[in-house]
Amino acid sequence: MDLGLAGAAALVTGGNRGIGRATAAALVREGARVVLLARDAASLAATAAEIGAAGHVVADTTDDVAVVGAVDEAARLLGGLDVLVNCAAPRADRSAPSGLAGLDDADFLRHLDTKALGYLRTARAAVPYLRQRGGAIVNISGMNARSTGNIAGSVRNIAVVALSKNLADELGPAGIAVSCIHPGLTVTERTEGDADYAATAARNSLGRPVTAAEVADVVAFLASPRGRVANGAVVTADGGRPGGVWT
């Protein structure tokens, strides 16, 4: 299937590692011109060279001034923007204390500031460019949005769902589709070869771990003109969590 992404201008935050990196690589393979955004200039440059990205920009998404400057530079490098994929977020810590007694206020706010408000900052800076010719925003959330056990993880991810639907309703009439995707435990370059992680990640209905490249394929579809009819949708990409029925 031709996704219609050839020549599209895409910005991927958190594009130097994990699902962000895999997504950027998938978009490049579809013919998109991609700029990566993250905080680490060295890893950005290395990743951009490895996957054939058009360039990279450096910003911490908790810094609005830096975000605006980076998005403007990305649009300058690409001659505009058609796609924004938000993936820049602190790594989920499965060993972190999960209840009230272990809740760290500063860490909780860091997760919200980076993942929820950070996504909004990047979207706010990108929307003036996206309005010029329509496009898509895909926000990477996570299955913690649908489970208890980690307060910061649940709240930061359900916040992404809420902001995505708000943006979908607001921006849809301007030709900008906004969707949200829930990966589960996903094998990335960081966890590849970790047998314990793979065994845990395989506890889905498929019975095998899901890879970042597989999640990236779903993101690429949602970002494409063919996937934009899914405006406002929340899509799971975790191999199927046994037992739950979601409406």
What do you see in this structure?
The protein is α/β, with parallel strands linked by helices and 247 residues long. The chain has one domain: Rossmann fold. It has seven helices and nine strands, in the order βαβαβαβαβαββαβαβ. It has helices spanning 18-29, 41-51, 64-78, 105-130, 151-171, 195-201, 212-223; strands at 9-13, 33-38, 55-58, 83-86, 135-140, 176-183, 186-187, 210-211, 234-237. The strands form two sheets. The chain has a seven-stranded parallel beta sheet, sandwiched between helices. Strands 7-8 form a two-stranded parallel sheet. The model has no long low-confidence stretch (mean pLDDT 95).
Give the C-level CATH assignment: Alpha Beta
Strand order of the largest sheet: 3-2-1-4-5-6-9
Compute the average pLDDT.
Answer: 95
Principal-axes geometry comes out as: globular
CATH homologous superfamily caption: NAD(P)-binding Rossmann-like Domain
- Weakly predicted, low-confidence segments: none
Indicate the CATH topology. Rossmann fold
